[in-house]
Amino acid sequence: MRRSDFDFALPPELIAQHPGAHRADSRLLHVTRDSLADLRFRDLPALVAAGDLLVFNDTRVIRARLRGTKDSGGRIEALVERVLGAHEALVQLRASKPPRPGTRLLWRSSGATVLAREGGFWRLRFDDDVHACLQREGALPLPPYIERAPEIADEERYQTVYAREPGSVAAPTAGLHFDETVLQQLRERGAREAFVTLHVGAGTFQPVRVDDLSQHRMHAERFRVPEATAHAIDEARARGARIVAIGTTSLRTLESAADAQGRVAPGSGETRLFVTPGYRFRVVDRLLTNFHLPRSTLLMLVSAFAGVDRVRAAYAHAIAQRYRFFSYGDAMLLERCDDRNPRAMMPLRR
User: Fold this and answer.
1) Using CA atoms, how far apart are residues 302 and 318, in angstroms rounded to an integer?
2) What SS3 state is found at 233?
3) Under DSSP, is residue 1 helix (H, G, I), strand (E, B) or coil?
4) Comparing C-alpha atoms, which of 330, 314, 315 is closest to residue 36?
5) Closest Cα to residue 331, out of 183, 174, 185, 145?
6) 60 CB contacts (<8 Å, ≥6 apart)?
7) How confident is the model over 36-86, as pLDDT tens digits?
8) d(CA 58, CA 195)
9) What angle do CA 251, 254, 256 make, to 5 degrees?
10) How far apart are CA 268 and CA 224, in angstroms?
């Protein structure tokens, strides 16, 4: 398949620019093998069975955007891609001229030194602790399709309620719909929960620039699977329960950590997993996710998971029904398509 197979026309007014008044008030499109159901996110607990294991990504978004000047006076903007240590980070830089090694970058009350260029990034050495500097001087890096500056409310709403491991430059947006009430209702239903960590990099917003998908190379992202999560997956499989990935980041983490038999190993690593139609899923049975950009790797992933034509029909339905799209938008719950032909599907009924 090619990049052009994943294009669609989205009315700009459906791109959510602000979060809803309450997290769980968002809409939920349930996409099964042969039907579409328009629900509310608060209906999710009724769709989950006792014993099902929900796997959440507990990464926390950092204030990754910095604005300042070069020591020569030119303005620069830095977006931290990855914190490498207490005083070093890999960043994207926007400047009138690319800085050379040794160039000083000045923030409001501290600065950094350019060490080297590494591909499309620069390695910087910060004068003080990177996380402390970002917390003090950085801004929340809202996605480029949110056409406004960050507001005070975003400091809370662009984080999941269970975020605890700082390191992402973008939120795992499927988790933004959960509030404590929904989480408690899931527990009361007998659902179980586990956590992984995948720190989302700025590359998640990079477009696929080649039409031949086999030529696309994914950006690397760090992940960690705790031993307790690997054990919980083993237990769920043993009792015949479903594994529900909360977001594409959780899915990519689990699939990256799994062997050919679907056994998930605990530990840390990096993933460049690029999931396209034809991929054989080894771990995840259901996927909760938001609606994704045209021609994006995330749209390709959900199409691989639920079937190309099924996802295409679901997106057409969502547009017709005026669902809200992207990070602050609505959600969909997808059942895995096990057809060997990723396009095969039964007619959808609404």
Assistant:
1) 15
2) helix
3) coil
4) 314
5) 174
6) 159, 163, 164, 165, 166, 167, 168
7) 999 999 999 999 999 999 999 999 999 999 999 998 889 999 999 999 999
8) 6
9) 105
10) 4
Domains of the chain: 3-61+153-335 (3.40.1780.10), 65-137 (2.40.10)
What does the alpha-carbon distance between residue 294 and residue 285 come to, in Å, rounded to a whole number? Answer: 24
Contact 12, 294 (CB under 8 A): no
Q: Which two tokens stand for residue 243?
A: 């594994």
d(C-alpha 250, C-alpha 76), whole Å: 34
Q: Which residue has the tokens 């988790």?
A: 175
User: How does pLDDT run across 94-134, given as a tens digit for each residue?
Assistant: 998 989 999 999 999 999 999 999 988 999 999 999 999 99
CA distances from 164 to 114, 299, 342 (A): 30, 27, 36
Measured CA to CA, the distance from residue 340 to residue 350 in angstroms comes to 25
Q: How many CB atoms lie within 10 A of CB 260?
A: 7
CB–CB of 119/90 below 8 Å?
A: no
Give me the helices (H) in the chain, please.
130-137, 154-157, 180-188, 227-238, 248-257, 297-306, 308-320
Residue 186 in 3-state DSSP?
helix
Distance from the Cα of residue 254 to its chain's centroid: 14
DSSP state of 121: E
Q: Could you tell me the two tokens for 308?
A: 């190309």
pTM over 0.90? The answer is: yes
Structure tokens at 124: 């910087």
Of 48, 289, 59, the residue nearest 192 (C-alpha): 48
C-alpha span between 189 and 181 (Å, rounded): 12
Structure tokens given for 235: 């237990």
Please tell me the distance from the alpha carbon of residue 99 to that of residue 91, in angstroms, as a whole number: 12
Q: Strands 65-70 and 243-246: what pairing?
A: unpaired
Cα(276)–Cα(81) distance, integer angstroms: 24
Residues in the chain: 350
